[in-house]
Amino acid sequence: MIDETAKLGKNVKIGEYVIIEKNAVIGDHVTIGHHVVIKENTRIGNHVTINDHAVLGQYPVSNKKMARKPSIHLSPLVIGDEVKIGSQCVLFRGTNIMDGVLIGDLAAIRENVTVGINSIVGRNVMVENHTRIGQYVTIQTSSYVTAHMVIEDHVFIGPCLSSSNDKHMEMGKGELQGPILRMGSKIGNHATLLPGVIIGEKAVVGAGAVVTKNVKANEVVVGNPARPINR
Amino acid sequence: MIDETAKLGKNVKIGEYVIIEKNAVIGDHVTIGHHVVIKENTRIGNHVTINDHAVLGQYPVSNKKMARKPSIHLSPLVIGDEVKIGSQCVLFRGTNIMDGVLIGDLAAIRENVTVGINSIVGRNVMVENHTRIGQYVTIQTSSYVTAHMVIEDHVFIGPCLSSSNDKHMEMGKGELQGPILRMGSKIGNHATLLPGVIIGEKAVVGAGAVVTKNVKANEVVVGNPARPINR
Amino acid sequence: MIDETAKLGKNVKIGEYVIIEKNAVIGDHVTIGHHVVIKENTRIGNHVTINDHAVLGQYPVSNKKMARKPSIHLSPLVIGDEVKIGSQCVLFRGTNIMDGVLIGDLAAIRENVTVGINSIVGRNVMVENHTRIGQYVTIQTSSYVTAHMVIEDHVFIGPCLSSSNDKHMEMGKGELQGPILRMGSKIGNHATLLPGVIIGEKAVVGAGAVVTKNVKANEVVVGNPARPINR
Predict the structure, then answer these.
(1) Looking at the complex, does the CB of residue B51 fall below 8 Å from at least one CB of chain A?
(2) ipTM of the complex
């Protein structure tokens, strides 16, 4: 079901039961799996691979309970060259996935996110809105990246990270601010990051640590609450 | 592929490659995404939105290892008015989703669950069977809600909650009892709740806390194991 | 869309918009849900049930950032008799799912994994490559099983486990080694296991524990870091 206004490049391979909606633009040498849905206006580069059942270019939704409604004025989803997108993924409008990025199966990335070149967003990773992910970043399987978080270049995040951005837990006070992970910092598996904490350059957060305050550059912290260790 | 016994209301928009099985009942002004599967007998209210690839009305399964077999005598899945259902969701028979609820992408809700009006079940949240979720509840992304859990009205659950219900870890002794979260309690991100703990009214569980015993009303607890703090 | 080289047994029920690629072999009395994708060469036993939107037999992918590229020389995915596979699952080539296994919805299992007879891989569980799961194992919902992990027979893993295998967090030094869970050990919900830790026979890891070193047979550990308790 390919809309007649969609533009397809050279040598595009399309699986069965695929939907390409109006004004989508697909580059050259793109491989599209079975049952993939590419929503209106989505722009896809060259040499991209999209696995089965992925949904690209979804609009956010809201209900009465939600204090902060997502914007519906969003630019199209833009996907660079040589990107690989896993099965069952959901990627939103207003987001920019740069060249060489790999997105694992069953991952979701919301609106107004940037993912820098050659980064990895692992399987089942959830990335919320208004987050900036640098280049050569690794985010391993089942990690949770909250809204308004900053992940600088060359950061490594082990599996099952949890992060948050709202000190007041939905009391509606103050700004949301996710953690800020400086260049080259490393986060062990299953760490917990509280709202707005800053993890300094090349700092290391141990597996299972609960980080309640800022971590200095090159520091290593472990425990609940996380405290520096001597190495 | 719409079964001839299915009943569709006025102004129902249906995507491509949708399956609506026998005796399903769809209200007015419903929008159904691409590749959605609506299984037999499912009842959907008015002004509902269902995103791509969602599966509604699934039966539970079991194997030889499973000590407690799920019931297969289940009433149909019932979805109220103005409900929004994310892409790739799986909702089971025997469950009741009330008016105004939002269910995020890649979430699953098992049989015999009630979700009260205007509540939010976030993206990638897993809700097990026989759980009661009140109204105006927020359950954020990637949280895990165990079976036989009670979440009262206006509870807030941050991302990546883990809860459990079996003290004996599958030794087959005793009843399963999930945590009980009283009215207006707040749970920080990545908290761990042990089987049957009661979180009192307006109590607060800090991020990363491991709650091994009951928390009194208005109390604030943090740490592993969680202990009250003075504010 | 069933390839003409695929071989189907007796009494195979096939849903709508299903894809069965070339040289797939399907046993007798198999039920295949809607929108299921069975990729080339996949071998499925008798009396198997596959729910909607599952993807069976996927190849791994990689990008420039990934230090260890996955093998692409993989034998077909092999699924035994009486296996049940949930909706939206993704199972890879090179993996062997033995008789009677149950795999929950939204789970993914990578290449070169063995799952022994009658084991349960819960909903939303992610299993990485080169992992060996014994028989009669339970892995509950939303758990994360890292690469190069060993789970012996009769192990119980509660919901939301996190495990890891790389002490150096992607510095490229040394071998990857996931945790080793000995026969009959039990892991409480939301535990954290560091790379290579050995959990002894019938040992118990408490909910929320962070296990940084080996646990002896029959020992019970809790806390962060995990320490033995007297019972």
Answers:
(1) yes
(2) 0.96
